[in-house]
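Summary for the steering committee. The consortium agreed at its last meeting that each partner would contribute one worked example illustrating the joint modelling workflow. Our contribution is presented below. We chose a case with several input lines so that the handling of multiple components could be demonstrated. No manual editing was applied between input and output; the record is shown as generated.
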Amino acid sequence: MLTAVPISWYLTLSAVLFALGVAGFLFRRNVITVFMSIELMLNAVNLSFVTFSYHNKTNDGHLFTFFVMVVAAAEAAVGLAIILTVFKNKGTLNIDEVDSMKN
Amino acid sequence: MQLWLIPILPLAGFLINGIFGRRFPKSLVNVVAVGSVVLSFLWVVKTLLALGSLQEPHLEHYFTWIQSGTAGDPGFLQVNCDFMVDRLTAVFLLVVTGVGSLIHIYATGYMAHEGGYYRFFAYLNLFMFFMLVLVLGASFLLLFVGWEGVGLCSYLLIGFYFDKKFATDAGNKAFIVNRIGDFGFALAMFLIFRNFHSLEFVKALPQAATATEGTLAVIGLLLMVGACGKSAQIPLYVWLPDAMAGPTPVSALIHAATMVTAGVYMTARSNVIYHHAPGAAGVIAIIGIATAFMAATIGMAQNDIKKVFAYSTVSQLGYMFVGIGSGAYGAGVWHVVTHAFFKALLFLGAGSVIHALEGEQDMRHMGGLRKKIPITFWTMCCAWVAIAGIPPFSGFYSKDAILAAAYEHSPAIYWIGVITAGITAFYVSRAMFLTFFGEPRGHHHPHESPPVMWIPLAILGILSLTGGFLFNVPEYLKEIFPPIHEVENPTLVYISVAAGVLGIAIAYLMYMVKPGMADSIAGALKAPYQLIYNKYFVDELYDATIVKPVVAGSRVVLWKGVDAGLIDGTVNGVGARSRDVGSILRLLQSGNIRSYAAWVLAGGVALILVMGFTGGLR
Amino acid sequence: MDVILFLVFALIAVACAINVVVQTHPISSAISLVGVMGSLAILYLLLGAEFIAAAQVIVYAGAIMVLFVFVIMLLNAGAESRKGRSYTVQLIGVPLLIAFLGLLAFFVQGMSGRETVVFGGFQKGSPRDIGQALFTTYLLPFEVTSLLILIAIVGAIVLARKEID
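What follows is the complete predicted structure of the assembly.
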């Protein structure tokens, strides 16, 4: 029986969470759900950073994670404001209908 | 000695008249144009007097024009802008500037009522510049510069009446046919450089004895190709009759006295080459006599007075080349000098006739002008007896010197030359009888030309009569040319003079005693008459065999096939294919965010694959 | 003990993540995402990142997700509609995703060897250490991110306010 968790398990978990985030981004049509998938991806990456920080015995990874969080916060604020504006103009939360950049 | 002044004065005339002439009054244009040439002539006289006997050539170095490679290399080429004066140059300088001045003076009267006055004199001065460079140049390359330049001026002046298509066509024809000759000249220069490592006369020509006869023959023949183009010999003579589309002073200066003699000058300058390659010299003699005979026969049947004299020029040039080819270089040059006198006189006189009749050139509508324009008549008589070879006038001396040398070289050429002399006398007499004698056939009120036109005629008349015994050119040039076997054979002289007199007599019979005889003979010998009247259909032959295939080939193959099809097709094709690729790539931009994300994911997977399998991920 | 904790909370995280993707109503996805973040905080603690764990709960779960919930409430977003399709995604989305995950897992196995994570094995994750690094080595990014937040605030206000007619 295992007495301790190998590091690769943490990394695999991070990969799985990231893949789920990508899946959410690709297959969901509600723009808010898409945004939440992005947050999920960011979290997966944070886990990966902290894991590698443990592996390298330094806290630089922690600081990276800190900055990622700060930027995610700013991005969430602005992004949601943009979603509000788009909703006001287009009246829909379905990203397939926001295609005015079509060729 | 300031030799450079000789060509620079006419060049200055060209620049002044060319740039400012439009605003000058005619008198000022005259002063600039005529003055520059007359000053050039005076400077020539002064220079030649100062140089004395010219036992050695006098060289003046101005600057180094081309220097390629380092000295000592086999391919080293240095061409200097040098002028050289030896006895041959002296003869040509005097003829070009002297006769040129007379013609310039005449032209001020002839062109007085024409448009583009300043342009005409600018071109004429430019021509003088190039011709003098040609004659003074101390190397083949500098000669070639002048050669090309006079070709250019010939084109400009033939097409002077640029609103007439036949004039511009004639200008094109002259230039294009000349280019063919120039190609031969260029090839000859390449061979000269390759064998003698220099293009300068004083360096290259003395080495002529070192090369093989075959090489020299090829060089000589290629030089002759150039001369055929410029001096209108078979097969490149076809431009000269058409060149009569230009104003008459142009015909006199360029196509009688100076430019067409450039070929004779060039072959005379290269006499050493021909001396060591007698086969090539023989070919030249044959070309010369064939041209002389053929042109004389064509001249017999022409009705335009200028065309008669044009074919006469081609024929007399043939005589000059007979002299060159027979080794009698001095005699050939002598004929250049006398021909300049009497042929320029004939052309200027014809111009005077045309001017008097206000544009009529067809001899069938002339007649009885003897009393109406007497000065023109008497001066042209001087030229008449000169060209017919009547002693002791100028033409007799030079023509007989040539025929004597031809007899030494090949009796057959001598006999054909004699017959041609007879035909020459015939057609000139015919022209004189038709123009000046008999009853007037046209509806004109002829008036005599102004003094500015008949004074040059008079001077040329005196020269035509006396030039033969006054200027013994072969004597003067004896030192320069290889010695020839001089023979005094009076019988030959009598025969050729008799041929001349016979020609005059036959013409007298056919046109004065029995005026209808010419037409009845023409009717009886219909086919030969049509043949010579239509110039042996040579122009038509060239048109069918050379001109039309080349033009058709250019149009179909090169224009439609290569240019429009291949090049335009490729360029347009690139544009069209780019558009096609773009319209395919455009489909990626669907506006759908999720598909963009899918493509990003695809890129990410590819990146992981690449990095993983090239060792980026440990 | 570490193993059990890891397995439990890893499974919770994955289950909540699947729920985020699968649920039709956005609010259910938001709650599930909060669950993911909480599990991740525990995992950070296991890895010795105390400060990051606290920050995760406070900032992510406590601020960002609250923002999300507010916006969902504001927009009155309902269950998702079925309109619109993308051929690209349908064709290549699933295979790519499987390839992606497979490749990542494959390469991850090759990294890091036999090392294991032991609770208490990493001592430099305390606030004191983080703070020291933050205000010495990473001072410039720190100041720049404060500027970034200011810009984000201004942008969000400008974009989302009502027009004054």
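The CA atoms of residues 558 and 564 of chain B lie 8 Å apart. The interface with chain C takes residues 590, 592, 594-595, 597-599, 601-602, 604-605, 608-609, 612, 617-618 of chain B (CB under 8 Å).
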